């Protein structure tokens, strides 16, 4: 039976809130990636496993060799040429490699770009997609327009032909959703893809393997997931079950990220970072987010700002802009972050600064002359339109951008 993670606060009278779990089967936390992967491959009966890894991780001889050895004769190949923000052309090359290898399981090793690429490859294999033109029929665009087959779940019949095991090496949380973002490099715009069961079947969190991730990337993607927790908590879709996940994610991030910054080899702190992501991403992809996420998508595609950095600079500004409408919620956020005297926006900004991450648009090389174009695009984005304080037009977005400047 296909299920997608969702909340339904406007369900039929008398049914209350409905929460449906995704087809994520299990999470291995604090695991040895080679041992957990060998266990999963045997359990799933996979015969031809394609590793899809970041370029840097594929060159880490000892750790990568251990993963490949864990697959033994089931290793069907490696693909490691996926760029930042998941360019569509890279997805199509991954799809070609998966088909040539006759893969029956994808194993992603890396961050959100790698994991999202594997989701779209799964969608393409399930739907018999062979060309970019066919793929974009399933896309949603930044202005809210959609391809003819976008999220038409009647097209997804039977069990998926291929699934993914994710071994995340960042803290972005892409492994928890049925959504994937793909970059159209011709117009510097992101496309969104959705499908039933596109989330990984299993997740392996190995804190030891994560030590290889550059510190700026590890910490900034943590702020991305803190953004998931905070905008999720501020969403009209949240409810007490989700609130508990989101607030505890904030507490764990506030306590464990400074420890990780102080000592990047602290595996206990790194494992807590991963647990915080697990909590923050409950409902990811279906609980609506707001302007921090939505503007972040534009900054990523148009200005090439890494997604972790977009949350670093936009989340405090959006919290400030939303403050009057969400005073009690922001007071709870501030408390979860361990601050009694600052407001939520200042608390987030102080945490970001303490981690040595950028705190303004200037810090991520966005120029003043780019702001009007960012505002125009963002004002049309469906995620921005879901912001808790209503955003009417580009002038409202400009107010937020000026707060982040």
TrEMBL record:
Organism: SAR86 cluster bacterium
CDD domains named among the record's database cross-references: MAR-like
Domain Alcohol dehydrogenase iron-type/glycerol dehydrogenase GldA positions: 26-207
PANTHER family hit by this protein: ALCOHOL DEHYDROGENASE, ALCOHOL DEHYDROGENASE 4
GO molecular function, one term: alcohol dehydrogenase (NAD+) activity
Protein keywords: NAD, Oxidoreductase
Protein family: Belongs to the iron-containing alcohol dehydrogenase family.
Domain Fe-containing alcohol dehydrogenase-like C-terminal, first and last residues per copy: 220-404
Protein name: Alcohol dehydrogenase
Pfam families in alphabetical order: ADH_Fe_C, Fe-ADH
Cofactor: Fe cation
